[in-house]
């Protein structure tokens, strides 16, 4: 089993003190999966040292239909986008991704964990 780390570009629709001066439209997000640490979770690292760990199944289900409650919510946005919404005491970050990047990441996590791809 190996760690999966993938970088994705995303658009922050609303933010909690995240400011990127050189490119206000797209920001780098680190997608990470460590099956030895927690085989059921994924991590998203947003700019400004904001890191979120949540259920891998939540991400997968959210690419097809709105899911989530509490701190993380995921839903499809049109045919090629997906939105991940992060809630904390500092506010809400709504982050829009290309669905293909998230699907590619999920496929890599299933390969790393020696699970069958569920798509």
What would you give as the CATH superfamily? Sporulation-specific cell division protein SsgB
Sequence of secondary-structure elements = EEEEHEEEEH
Number of strands: 8
Q: CATH class, please? A: Mainly Beta
Q: Major β-sheet, in short?
A: 8 strands, antiparallel
Number of H- or I-type helical stretches = 2
Please, what is the average pLDDT?
86
Q: What would you say the CATH architecture is?
A: Roll
- What gross morphology would you assign? globular
> Radius of gyration in whole Å, from Cα?
14 Å
Q: Label the structural class.
A: alpha+beta
Distance between the termini: 20 Å
Q: What level of helicity do the residues show?
A: 10-25%
Kindly give the count of domains: 1
The residue ranges in which pLDDT falls below 50 over 5 or more consecutive positions are: 18-23, 115-119
Strand order of the largest sheet: 4-3-2-1-8-7-6-5
CATH topology: Transcriptional Co-activator pc4, Chain A
- The fraction of residues in strands falls at over 45%
Tell me what you see in this structure.
The chain is α+β, with helices and mostly antiparallel strands and 119 residues long. The protein has one domain: Transcriptional Co-activator pc4, Chain A. It contains two helices and eight strands; from the N terminus they run E-E-E-E-H-E-E-E-E-H. Mean pLDDT is 86; it is low at 18-23 and 115-119.
């Amino acid at each position: 089993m190996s760690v999966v780390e993938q970088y994705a570009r995303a658009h922050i629709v609303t933010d909690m003190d995240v400011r990127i001066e050189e490119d206000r439209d797209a920001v780098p997000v680190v997608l990470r999966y460590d099956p030895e640490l927690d085989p059921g979770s994924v991590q998203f690292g947003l700019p400004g040292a904001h890191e979120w760990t949540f259920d891998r199944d939540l991400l997968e289900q959210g690419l097809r239909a709105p899911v989530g409650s509490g701190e993380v919510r995921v839903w499809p946005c049109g045919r090629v986008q997906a939105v991940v919404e992060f809630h904390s005491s500092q506010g809400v970050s709504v982050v829009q991704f290309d669905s293909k990047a998230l699907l590619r990441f999920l496929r890599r996590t299933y390969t790393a964990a020696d699970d069958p791809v569920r798509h």
